[in-house]
Amino acid sequence: MSDFGWTEEQELARRMLRRWVTEKLEPATDALERCEVPPYELMRDLVRTFALADLARASFERAAARSAAPTEGESRGGVMGGGDAALQALLVIELCRVNPGFFMAFGASVGLAGGAIMARGTPEQRRRFGLPLVTMEQIGAWGMTEPGAGSDAFGAMRTVAREDGDGYLLSGQKTFITNAPFADLCVIYAKLARDGDQPEARPIHAFVVERGAPGFVQGPPMRKMGMHSSPTGELFLEEVRVPRDHLLGGEALVAARDGARDVFHGERTGMAPMALGIIERCLETALAYSQQRVTWGRPIAEYQLVQEKLARMFMHKQNVENLVWKQLALQRNRRSMSPAEASATKLYSARAATEVALDAVQLLGGNGYMQEFRVEQLARDAKLLQIGGGTDEIQIANIARWLCRD
Ligand SMILES: Cc1cc2nc3c(=O)[nH]c(=O)nc-3n(C[C@H](O)[C@H](O)[C@H](O)COP(=O)(O)OP(=O)(O)OC[C@H]3O[C@@H](n4cnc5c(N)ncnc54)[C@H](O)[C@@H]3O)c2cc1C
To answer: Which of 167, 206, 227, 388 is geometrically suited to a Cys-Cys bond with 101, CB 3.0 to 4.6 A?
Structure first.
């Protein structure tokens, strides 16, 4: 792609993705949104249709041959575009035009859980636990948040891991975890406790916990405002024994806290394509509707109050699109956004998506409030972007802290 715009090849890929979304995801969305079926079989269909597992496996083996951890593009992007960041972004945009919840479940498994293992795991862990996630053979969940520890996830964390013989015993509780009810394996963050240590000095590490481990309970899907296609749940750990090789990064004890920060960074910049998908679809729906809906003998698009909404939607679309392209340009040059830029990208994109989706509901009047036109679903889904991966308020605090640093 050029710095601002998609290449012809990428446009072609986009049309192919849109065909799959129109033929497979749109017709399934009512059942997914009513939680009648989990999203995983359809995800596997997506992966099969575009041979994404083969691409993921190939990029994994390339990295393994270099004896290196896969790059962010390779690990997160393996299944989501063969390591090509632009194709990965297009996949997110196209899925989120119709069903952001479906993408969230997909992204949490491949990008959060799979990405954490690929970025931080030992070569054995990457092959054993990471590869099945990035090829979608298994479903993953990424467990950081706890009932008492959300925004202050590290400081207030209560989940502990105690060394015990040839392994660790994990105890604690996680909540609001995407894919928790159905995940085959979960990346669980815990404070490592040692005899006689000070609780506040305990380092945070990530552990792989597999479905069915004694003492490990995966709660049922929670009912929520939006993102219904994405199952969310609690995880309960009562003295769950994991072998030493389930400590992510191995006994060398990499700083899982930094690893979690990497994932947060990726989650923040990764929200812009999600927001763009929502914004694109809402603008298109609102534009078409306002040109055909007539009041007092004129299409509503001719009224200035309606035009103001359409113009703001277009402005947000342009800005978020530019943020996506900036992110891609940086990645091409092996650079990344600063923490403040990543927070500002998330803050702006999430707010823009919510505003645009709610304006689309308003512009469609009664029809906007009905499920048929889909904008009410996108509005409920968009709101999550302001909460998950760090709330708006936390992004503001991050930006201010960075601006005011020494
Ligand atoms: C659908 C869904 C899926 C999720 N998926 C996952 C997942 O897969 N894995 C995972 O680990 N987590 C997940 N989360 C959790 C999510 O990351 C947290 O909900 C989020 O970080 C906020 O934490 P909290 O809910 O505890 O809110 P709190 O931290 O309790 O915040 C409550 C309010 O207080 C504000 N606030 C808090 N501290 C400050 C401050 N210092 N200054 C100003 N305002 C402040 C917040 O902005 C917010 O408005 C998910 C959440 C949802 C809703």
So the answer is: 227
Q: Closest Cα to atom 23, ligand 1: which residue?
A: 150
CA of 141, closest atom in ligand 1: 8
Owner of token pair 């930006």 = 399
Residue linked to tokens 């090789």: 245
Mutation test residue for ligand 1: of 33, 151, 222, 393, the one with most atoms within 8 Å of CB: 151
Parts of the chain with a pLDDT under 50: 77, 79
Comparing C-alpha atoms, which of 99, 77, 98, 97 is closest to residue 89?
77
Residue 47's beta-bridge partner residues?
Answer: none
Q: How far is the CA of 56 from the centre of ligand 1 (A)?
A: 31
Sign (positive/negative) of CA torsion 134, 138, 144, 150?
Answer: positive
Give dist(CA 337, CA 321) in Å, integer: 16
pLDDT value of position 77: 46
Q: Record the tokens describing residue 361, joined without a space.
A: 């509901």
CA of 154 to the centre of ligand 1 (A): 12
Domains belonging to the chain, first-starting first, are 8-139 (1.10.540.10), 143-255 (2.40.110.10), 258-403 (1.20.140.10)
Give bridge partners of residue 294 from the DSSP assignment.
299
Annotated catalytic residue 267 = yes
Read off the pLDDT of residues 168-193 as tens digits, 9 standing for 90 and up. Answer: 999 999 999 999 999 999 999 999 99
Q: Which of 279, 260, 268 is nearest to 343 (CA)?
A: 268
CB 79 within 8 A of CB 58: no
Q: Which residue has the tokens 């609102």?
A: 286
From start to end of 292-375, where are the E strands? 294-295, 298-299
Alpha carbon of 116 to ligand 1 centroid (Å): 20
Residue 156 tokens read as: 């207030």
Residue whose CA is closest, atom 6 of ligand 1? 177
Task: Say if strands 294-295 and 167-178 run parallel, antiparallel, or are unpaired.
Answer: unpaired
pLDDT of residue 103: 98
Element spanning 385, H or E? helix 375-385
